Amino acid sequence: MAAVGASLLLLQCVVLAGAATADAQYSAQTFVDLQNAARADVGVAPLAWDDTLAAYAQRYAGERKGDCKLVHSDGPYGESIFWGNKGGNWTASDAVALWVQEKQYYNCSDGSCAAGKICSHYTQIVWANTTRVGCAAVACDGNLGTFILCEYDPRGNLLGVRPYAGCGQFNRSAQSSPQDFLNLQNAARAGVGVGMLSWDSTVAAYAEGYAEKRKGDCQKVSSGGPYGENLFQGGGGISWTVSDALFSWLGEKQNYICESNACKEGQPCGEYTQLVWANSTRVGCASVTCEVGGTFITCNYDPRGNLAGERPYLGCGGQAGGTPPPTSDKVNGTETNGNGNGSSANSSNPSRNGSSPAILPIVLPVVTILALISAISIYIWRKRSSPKKKLSYDEKRGKLAWDTRYKIICGIARGLAYLHDESRIKVIHRDLKPSNILLEMDMNPKISDFGLASVFEGDHTKHITRRVAGTYGYMAPEYAVLGHVSTKSDVFSFGMIILEIVTGRRNSVSSETMMAEHLLTYVWENWTRGTKAEIVDPSLHNNYSESEVLKCVHIGLLCVQESPSDRPGMANVILMLVGRSTSLPAPSRPAFLFRLNEDENHVHGDLSNLLDDSNKSNPSFNKLTITEFEPR
């Protein structure tokens, strides 16, 4: 295992073995959520992830990585196959988007597919009797691209059987909710490492007004207004929804050439680039049923994107700052047997060979945040005045709404996911804490101070060090005591930051005074007693979404679990934060949980004792022994 400098090769292979995978681009939850969005559109029950199917997919992906040909396994399951050629950073959303786009060719009324077109990818995804799915992805040998497949049980596309009953409208109002528009678009933006959009009622009102004007003919004609704009028009006889519009826009990714920042000749890509335009921070959308039949969907973006001479986001292959889009020449689907599906996205670009070096900047961008962080120490990076200004606790406490705190949580998560999973070099920060989160004057946060960072090659993401350094209260136990460094060390630190943001309490272990209750103890005891409302910062005055706040506390506790293997990867953290699923695993006992003396209201056996010279003769904690300590 080697830690290397800032010039490394792209990770060569990503394979799914279960729902706890650490890569957002290929996570089990991503595959499930994207396909379930399409199933919900036609009123079909959601799929569940199955590890047996995933293992089958993983084995077959391993067999195919030598040539990555679209050849089916001919196994007992339904099967969809995707191949993206070299030069493109192909992800789960690319494969599912290509499969779901076939909906436009499927005639629900008679169960037929348009002449010369393929529909079986789509019909397998929405097959009502299919209840389980497992997927895998692998980088092809010889830099031949990416091979992605999903297995389905029971299999679909049975002769003479319809994929689902009925052809009517299904839950249109729910599928056109602001949260659905946000979730789907932010999932796509996360794939290229840009910040999340927020819903804007003014922009939404503009979209609604224009949608009403267009409902008579539903022609895809630009409104010519002050905002960026994406339009979708679905023909009559089909229940078109938000996810259809998104997959249509996302499908243009194959037409965008990142290196030249241009669309392929004769092919549109403007709706994709607007969707992922980094400087667009607000969105508003609307959907109407057309008088002539069909559906018209519009989304407006502010600030507008697609500005001449500008790129949608930072990075293109070897550049740090985002995940590069593909550079394909064409997309064509091929069906090789009646039981499954194969799709390919081919590209040709000799300058993209997967070996371009990546350069790690000293400060990495996270996401756009519109206000300061509350209740914890934070610095502001001033471009035109003093380099840094530290805000006092009293200046910040109580001034920020929950929405802003939530955006900051998601922003830090986005930055860590980039460092751990999306950068061409793997980076473990090792000293993540509030004072190492910088905010520009426009409130653009950045993870800073990489003085202790560990950088790794390929799939190596952990090592053991004899030089333990960091900040007490944010150091994971396996790192603080044994020197074990991994991405899960950063996850622990992130969990502590979440709990500070939600509670409005300082992390007492890292502060000079130890008279305050220990943060983890306070949160855990209230969580287990069922007094969860006591965890939330009282300065919020109940002006918050209870489910969202408690979800963040839940995620924070998952991140600070004692065993590193129990902590989620940052990719899954993001999915938990922005996903619609309400089912999260129960957190186990946190690391560094201290019992309180209720009469004296102070902490016994805390980490500060380990720093006291008088205690160095017996530096033991939680049945583990510290052999060497170099605090920072």
TrEMBL record:
<dbReference type="Pfam" id="PF00069">
    <property type="entry name" value="Pkinase"/>
</dbReference>
<dbReference type="GO" id="GO:0005524">
    <property type="term" value="F:ATP binding"/>
</dbReference>
<feature type="region of interest" description="Disordered">
    <location>
        <begin position="318"/>
        <end position="353"/>
    </location>
</feature>
<dbReference type="InterPro" id="IPR001283">
    <property type="entry name" value="CRISP-related"/>
</dbReference>
<feature type="transmembrane region" description="Helical">
    <location>
        <begin position="358"/>
        <end position="381"/>
    </location>
</feature>
<dbReference type="InterPro" id="IPR014044">
    <property type="entry name" value="CAP_dom"/>
</dbReference>
<dbReference type="GO" id="GO:0004672">
    <property type="term" value="F:protein kinase activity"/>
</dbReference>
<keyword id="KW-1133">Transmembrane helix</keyword>
<keyword id="KW-0325">Glycoprotein</keyword>
<dbReference type="InterPro" id="IPR011009">
    <property type="entry name" value="Kinase-like_dom_sf"/>
</dbReference>
<feature type="domain" description="Protein kinase">
    <location>
        <begin position="159"/>
        <end position="592"/>
    </location>
</feature>
<dbReference type="GO" id="GO:0016020">
    <property type="term" value="C:membrane"/>
</dbReference>
<keyword id="KW-0675">Receptor</keyword>
<feature type="compositionally biased region" description="Low complexity">
    <location>
        <begin position="333"/>
        <end position="353"/>
    </location>
</feature>
<dbReference type="InterPro" id="IPR000719">
    <property type="entry name" value="Prot_kinase_dom"/>
</dbReference>
<dbReference type="GO" id="GO:0005576">
    <property type="term" value="C:extracellular region"/>
</dbReference>
<keyword id="KW-0067">ATP-binding</keyword>
<dbReference type="InterPro" id="IPR002413">
    <property type="entry name" value="V5_allergen-like"/>
</dbReference>
<comment type="function">
    <text>Probably involved in the defense reaction of plants against pathogens.</text>
</comment>
<keyword id="KW-0547">Nucleotide-binding</keyword>
<dbReference type="InterPro" id="IPR035940">
    <property type="entry name" value="CAP_sf"/>
</dbReference>
<keyword id="KW-0611">Plant defense</keyword>
<dbReference type="InterPro" id="IPR018244">
    <property type="entry name" value="Allrgn_V5/Tpx1_CS"/>
</dbReference>
<keyword id="KW-0677">Repeat</keyword>
<keyword id="KW-0472">Membrane</keyword>
<feature type="signal peptide">
    <location>
        <begin position="1"/>
        <end position="24"/>
    </location>
</feature>
<keyword id="KW-0808">Transferase</keyword>
<dbReference type="Pfam" id="PF00188">
    <property type="entry name" value="CAP"/>
</dbReference>
<keyword id="KW-0597">Phosphoprotein</keyword>
<protein>
    <submittedName>
        <fullName>Putative pathogenesis-related protein PR1-RK1 isoform 5</fullName>
    </submittedName>
</protein>
<keyword id="KW-0732">Signal</keyword>
<keyword id="KW-0812">Transmembrane</keyword>
<keyword id="KW-0568">Pathogenesis-related protein</keyword>
<dbReference type="InterPro" id="IPR008271">
    <property type="entry name" value="Ser/Thr_kinase_AS"/>
</dbReference>
